[in-house]
Amino acid sequence: MEKMLVSPSPHVHSATTTSRLMGDVCIALLPALVVSVLFYGWAELLVIAVSAVSCVAIEWAITRYLFKKEGCFCGSAALVTGLLLAMNLPSTTPWWIIVIGALFAIGVAKMPFGGLGQNIFNPAIAARVFLLISFPQQMTDWTLTPGFIHTTDAVSGATLLGVFNEGGIQALQSLGYHTGISDLFYDMGGSAGEISDIALLLGFVYLLCRKVVKPWITISIFATVALVSGIFWLADPSVYTGPGFNLLTGGLILGACFMATDYVTSPMSNWGGVIYGIGIGFIVMMIRYFGAYPEGVSFAILIMNMVTPLINRGFHRKKFGRA
Amino acid sequence: MNKNVTFSIGGIHPNDNKIARGCAIEALPLPQTLYVSVAQHLGAPAKPVVAVGDKVKTGQVIAEPGGFISAFVHSPASGTVRSIAPRKDLAGNWMTHIEISVEGDEWVEGVDLSDTLVTGIPEDIPATLEKIKACGVVGLGGATFPTHVKLNPGPQAHPECLILNGAECEPFLTSDYRIMLEKTKEIIVGAAIMQKVLGGVKTVIAIEENKPEAIEAMRKALSELPYGNISVLVMKKRYPQGGEKQLIDAVMRRQVKSGALPVSVGAVVQNVATSLAVYEAVQKNKPLITNTLTVTGDCLPVERQHNYLFRIGMPLSFIAEYAGGVPAEAAKIVSGGPMMGKAIANLDAATVKGSSSILYLSGKLTKRREEGSCIRCGRCSDACPMGLEPFLLNRLYKAGDVEGLEANAAQDCIECGCCLYSCPSFIPLLDNIRMAKGQVMGVIRARAAAAKAAADAAKNENKK
Predict the structure, then answer these.
(1) Do B249 and A320 touch (CB under 8 A)?
(2) Which of A210, B122, B281, B370 has the fewest Cβ atoms nearer than 10 Å?
């Protein structure tokens, strides 16, 4: 009897653990990672490997030598950050820029706030924006690296959103571009996270089935982007791009499915999530139409990250038996 | 689509592990010594009315109520009172126990020990309530609240619905299931008696869908008995459906306000085991000295699992020995279900009226892992059946913000354990919220006392 455990209830626990949740996110990212390696080849694989390894290593080093903690090593969350960062980078990114990005993601955006669960900004996006501002040339070098699958209609050098940002709708039309089914499967000239919408959505459906994330934030972003771009497009289709183009190009699907749904930096409640999604969708469209940058998903998510604590204050769950 | 009813907020779906469901109830033999606690119910402990050396018979009163909310305690066997002294209960706390050395099983006069079903419902309601009180009947769903008090909600209350709780939503436990199968008609007669006491209200026997045999048995027995306005309601399997507020929400679609009693929405909830005790008290004049208990667990082979009819005062160690001893793989022994039961610190503790199980859990199943960081996934919030935000309460508790805790309704916590169960980082949410709830209740009580004192002072001032 003296060897028995005594502790307060409950005495059983669900099988869901933090590392299992993070593992599920990694599995969900796999289809998109595989597609990007198929299209961009060894260079892309190197980007992914460098990013993942450096994020995990930096988190381990900070936990071990600055926090002076042993055994409490949550490497799976750093791995997710590493994979997401890699999906935001061109396959041509030099390795040292990736390491700087990882250092910023973990060492600046995450650990100084107290580590896992404490950061205000999504580390991968914060690092991407930091790199975009610091190394604008390397970060927008969409030269195609040789992949294992060759396509003929590759647009090299600029993304579709970049073309629109530079020359407006005419420039897009002169490329002979029209929104088509093929966009769903591959979308050349972009980062790993932009290449295949279907692969990303497949991963997101996996997350939904495993009940890792809830769909409300993502749905809210898609709906807002479709609504805002729909209104502008109907008002003047010769100036503004339409909902189809805006939903399927750029980093919107990656951002809405994997970045905006990050537990730590998004609101806790369902309605809070909807408000957060509306904010992201609206800011994305404003930046795409009127901003200096061609793509606004990262900025939109960072801005709404800042608002999250306020949203959490405003939206509480409805309590049982209380008005 | 599953059309069965359930409660509206939160909840979890733990593996129900009803391994002992096939084990018929067996009566345990009497041990040499019984230790009967005077605190077998919610409220004031009972006062012993026997002295050391007294001869007692089975069913004889050995302690009487120590207050309005209290209950009679009866001797579980015939024999001699050896001592009236403090003894450790299962949590290791000292409590007065009446020690009886067993000499036989000779019952007091006037108890009907036959199995004959008595279906006639007595008309005299005060006499019925008096019998329920005299037989020491308390709620056997967990809270052990004196039944005669609950069945007499006062002239201002308007009960509309009697809910018989057959949810048994705690994993592993099968005692309610077994009595629903084996004592079906007795339970229904008990329900009809309580229905009569409450003024002929609508009566619902609420059972979870994972017990189809019990649902079938209840429906069949109802069709064979002459009572009206009693029906069986099938509920989805979901924890904590047997919680009083959740059950009322599931059955009546009404939410009991924070701090209010169930009868404020017209509901009276009684467990099926309580209904059986009411039947035995009113129809058979038999005091509550027996109940059903499940010996089960994930590290106990099926053939060693049992449902036992026990007498109060039996040491748990006696029952464990009788059932073949503590399995070697057991890391924790729990009295009650794995979600809300108490870990047993002292296996020599005696059974009480509300005992429901001896549950052996393996280390693999029960050992808590090291606490990690909150990743703000919101699972605790989604699981809370009271609509609370456990992650927030945990943070407020750590910050010592009692005002914030009260504003965020820490006092509404029903301690069901869904938050801790769901937390992927093993944060001891309920441990902390339980402490927080205590602090908030203290503040609320102090405030009420201060307000009362101020009112009294003002009254005295006016008199002068």
Answers:
(1) yes
(2) B370
